[in-house]
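Can't attach files on this board, so I'm pasting raw text. These are the components:
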Amino acid sequence: MNLAGWTLAELLPLFAAGATAITALYLLRMRRRQLVVPFAALWRQVTRESDTRRLWRKLRRMLSWLLQLCLLALLCLALGDPRPSAWLRDPVTLAIVIDRSASMGGPAGDGTTGTADPANPGLTRLDLAVRRARAELSALGPVDRALVITAGPEVAVPGPLGRDSDPLLRSLEGLRPAAGEADLGRAIALARSALAGQPGGRILVLSDGALDPAGAAALAACTAPVPEDMSTGTGSQAVPKDSPADAGPQAVPEAMSPGTGPEAQPDRPPRCQLARVGGPVDNVAITAFAARRYPEDREHVEVLAEVHNLGDAAAEVVLEVRADGLSVGRRTLTLAPGERHTEVLRDLDAARTRLLAQLSPGPGSSAAALGPAGDDRAHAIVPPLRPFKVALITEGSDLFLEAALLTLQDHIQLTGMGPAAVPGNPALAEADLVVIDLGAEALPSPLPAQDLVIFDPLRRADGPSPFTSNGELTRPFLTEQALGHPLLDGVVLKDVNLARATRLAALPGDQVLIRSLGDPVALLRHEAGQDDGSSARTIVGFGFDPRQSDLPLRTAFPLLVANLVTYFEQARPGFVASVPVGAARPLAVAELGLAPEGLGAVEVAGPEPLADGTSPDLAADAPLPTARVPVDRGVFRLRAREPGIYRVTALDGPAAGATVLLAVNQASAPASDLHDRIDDLELPPEASAGDPPTPLPVGEGPLWTLLLLAAAALIALEWATYHRRVTV
Amino acid sequence: MAWWKRSAPTPSALNDEPVPEARSLAGARPSHHQGPRRAAGPDDVFDDAFLARLELLQVIARRLFRGRQRAERKTRKVGSGLEFADHREYSPGDDIRNLDWNVLMRLGQSLIRLYEEDEDLPIRIAIDVSESMQTSGGGKLRYASQVAAALAYVGLANLDRVGLTCMSRKVHNSLPAVRGKGRIFRVFDFLRAAPRGGTTDLRAACSRLAAESVQPGLTVVLSDFYDMDGAFDGLNLLRFRKHEPVAIQILDPAEVHPERSALRGDVSLVDCEGGDPRDVTLSPATLRAYAEAHERFCGALASSCRARGIPYFRAEIDVPFDELVLRMFRLGGLLR
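---
Top answer:
Structure tokens for the assembled complex are below.
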């Protein structure tokens, strides 16, 4: 505390003189008013004082004297204009970057034992960060400025740069952990941009250290030591000549940068420091949750849930899967540290479309072992039931192929047609998969735009084959096949006799399914959409004719056909189980079950309230937040900030008004991992922010006014108690 | 207009004393160390109707006193009244007109008829004129004078002998007993010209009053009785001297309830009758304590009087004068 007005040497004589005068006045005997009464004897009897009362009268006089001295001291101190030391230092511009990732929702702990604080089990890491931010803001002086940046999947500035700490403190209210990782890179870049040219720039990152690689890299870059040439203004962040940087080097604020050198020069990049808010690292998360219909039994679904113990101790949890509010599965899992458990619920009724997986503490376990609540819940949508349409273009001689397809007709819709019926056939336009098996006849020109399975596409050189030939093979043996590929699952091609085959030319990106002594005879090709309007598709080409082999006589043939149908069936829209939360992610509307033709925009609404009425941001009766998102070439960018069920509605095109559901989950093991990664970064010692600063007793305003107000309050108190006869 | 108004002095002529420096509890001006003054006459409030109503009243004496002249009061004396009292043996010299001829003729005995003697009642009205009665602008003294005048008129109208005495520590002045309604102007003049001042000492005053009284009778003491030690002793002494004392305590509500006033703070209390000043701090608690102590004092006086059969009346000067005389005195048995 310093005196900016009268010095102490000037104030002391003034106080001494005033105190002497006051004391002299108190020593003088007060002349009382005379009051004539008719019965003084009775008054004398009434006003006879006890010893205690006499002592109190003397003490009261002493208190009054001390009160007057206090008043005099306050007035003298007001003349001195006292100011805290922090008010007299150089200005500081502080950017507080608060990590708002999902891991910040973890328990704060007591800071010593690594377990949740039993006195305050609901305290989260974000609460600690907010507490630290409040302490930092409370320590700012009248000339300091600050801003608050929150780094979640998206970066926000709840507290803009300003000198008044009240709106900044208010901006810290209601902060919640976001789902997903924090985009620290953008947040730090924003902080640097905001502090450019500001004196005494300082970036304070408040994080628990559970960062993804990108965030860790951004933090390491921010806290890296500043090269010496930056201090001369030659660095990339040198400010213009007319900026406050020209004022020359300024002293480092003592309270804000303990033990550092001349870093507060405005032409230097702002210092970056990290304040860690830690806690227990126990966490069990649902890292995957999906549902699919059985290809062969589309009335039933299969649900997969993956539970990952990301903590350092074994955990016992209960996984419960609910479908439209009804429990369809419940398992008690005991997971070792780091164990990942996959739970599959089979043969569930597909009539219920919304699935919810939820973790709860097991018997005898505490809720703290589950960590943040955001990853203890996951959603899934059962894909809509729509028949898979297969068009078979054949001249009618391959009965084996037709028979194999007909056996699948309980879940596919097969349409057969001859080559002559191909042009303008509406069934062909609606088909999801086109199988071409024309034998010796030419391929239809042009080829259908859908996914294709073509047998022997290069038998005739004049056809519009999507493949090119590298020559013919006579009586080849199928010597190699892509094991593990879903198209060849369970298919054994050993000793299959072929009369002839075409050696297919594999392009980059093609997958060779079958080889004959190294020569590709079956390829899988993914074609991207073109500017001419053609959409992406997948083509499977077999360089032989089944009629010229004994493959149809083997059990491998119907399995191969079933695999083909299943592969394309699972790749078609409706098998998007869930989307992770985070920044804008591209999604194909076709994958969601919406026809991309003519679709220019969709409306995304959600997340919907849960079955139990809870929703992170919404009241039960509040309308869903909606966003209109443009669709470009069948792709739109989904920005899902919260996990839950979203509604995607086509706004135009032939499918206008059609609505599909989309599940969004956190489902990210890195985001749920609460382990501190800061130590791996080897940050310099000065990057640590240390203990929180001591808040200033008075944030702003001249103190002498407060002293005068205090003196006035004392006078009012003395007047009220004396003249209202409270103390007399 | 009442015919005696012609002699009433004007109030301005009665309050020509200088304004003292100190204040009194109820705004009164102390008059100690000053000579006798004249106050407003007690006849100012009497009108024809009030006097007519007073004439219907009569002072009640619980005891029988000897009178001096024939009047309307019964006495123990057997004399020449109208109401038969007793017989006695004839003795030479008796008025032969009182011989009971019927008894003589029937029984042959000479008996003289005796009759009850009706005499007057000696009434002495003692007014405390000490300084304590003159606070509050002399309101208490004025009120006491009016009450004394009313009682005197009642007595004079009933052919009683009424005397007045002004006293404080001593007897200042006395009006010898007078008789007849026409003497009421002497009463007024006496009250108007009565000297006042001095300290309150009821024991000494009553002792002197009893010593000066030739004949005991009904003695009405009008005072505030602000005498811590002798308030009741004076009345009791009168009782021992065969008087029938009647206590009428004149009080000023401002003095009875000082907590209702705006007085607060550090003051120096000065007794209007002299004495050392006392420094006190007047707080609401202190004022309430005084009011309670005052009430206890008055209660003790009243209970002492009642215990010894002394009629006690408490008259606060904010009570209308005629209500006190016409209603409260009648209810209390002083008048009928």
